[in-house]
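Protein in question kept in full:
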Amino acid sequence: MPSPERIGLTDARLLMALSAHPRATTVALAEASGLSRNTVQSRLTALDRTGAVGSFERCIDPAALGYPLTAFVTTQVSQRRLDEVARALAGIPEVLQVLGLTGDTDLLVQVVATDAEDLYRVAGQVLDVPGVERTSTALVMRQMVPYRLTPLLRRTTAR
């Protein structure tokens, strides 16, 4: 996984403003962060180019698309086929994310489904990928702490 450059104080201030107002214009972000419009535009371009700011797709709730169930599928894979398995998993629309892990589990696959029967189908698709040796599926019952970065941005701006 490529590692973006470390975020400095200026970028952290900008990202805090963007986090608070994701639809804000460059001018509004400049006002909120205390930076010039040109600085904001330049820093956003640089953050995008270096990979520090990724896709904003994460903000879309899969339930709004008809996929109210979320599950994690722990997956054991034939080691020589990890890249092949990852490419195949990327071809399954219900697979939202695949993370490579250390330990007994090789991949953590986040999936969504329309209902229990659909989850069974999706989990079966994951298991059917050549190179996948074993899976175990855990249904998400409730989100306890949502994905967030604001506490880290606050810590960065406080330094």
User: Anything to note?
Assistant: The CA atoms of residues 24 and 58 lie 18 Å apart. Strands lie at 69-77, 95-100, 107-113, 132-139. Helices lie at 9-20, 26-33, 37-50, 82-90, 116-128, 150-158. The longest strand covers residues 69-77.
